[in-house]
Specification:
Structural class: alpha/beta
CATH superfamily: Ribonuclease H-like superfamily/Ribonuclease H
CATH topology: Nucleotidyltransferase, domain 5
Number of strands: 5
Order of helices and strands: HEEEHHEHEHHHHH
CATH architecture: 2-Layer Sandwich
Number of helices: 9
Helix content: 25-40%
Largest sheet: 5 strands, mixed
Shape: globular
CATH class: Alpha Beta
Low-confidence stretches: 1-7, 11-25, 248-255
Length: 255
Amino acid sequence: MPFYHRPPADRAPLRPVQAPAPAPSAPSAQAQWQARHVGYAVVDLETTGLSPTTDFILEIGLVLADCAGRVESSWSTLIDPGRGVDVGPTRIHGLMAEDLAGAPALDEVADLLVSQLAGRAVVAHNARFDVGFLTHALGLRGLLDRGARVPRVCTMEWSRHFMTTPSRRLTACCQAAGVSIDQHHSALDDALAAAGLLRHYLAVGARRGEEPAWSHAMEQAAVFSGWHWDPSRARAARPRLLARRRPGALRDPER
């Protein structure tokens, strides 16, 4: 079977055809109402490599959207991975060690990040990558329950359900959907692009008369209790955020 016919990972798996199993109980009216009002946290990470266990986060881009995909707020920050850490493939993410001078450590912003992921479905283009890094890094810090599966929506895996595209890469999907993307591999720009894809998918689904295809992820997000954070540390993180410089921008000499 071609890989693009496989159901996305955020779709509920089908039971194997064996002995009849009891039908699952339908969600309560309260659960359905809650799911319809859950928002989204669209995230993109730039990292030193591909392994959540051996590589480090260099940049976080976060876009908060309501249940209709409308952007409510956004922020981004560079992350200092620590002394002596190789920043990895600069040719891809465009970051050099000197760009990270003055950036907060992940420990300093993790509570803010978790406070804004909580109560929302986490969205990413290739969620397996981004959520994998978040699960490992935030789990190590005690901000996510061990073994918890974060409710997620992957715009890459759902792409061919909603449009025709020769590739599932972010840039190709954005071109097919008419979504603008500014500086690819800048975490905030990529998160904004993924948020645009999410809105496109929701609009296509609405025209088809469909409920969101990932409704079960929204039901999970409405009741997910695996996140933990310190509100005072979350508030203290705001002034520490350091966004990536735009091409041609000068660094503030006081930073």
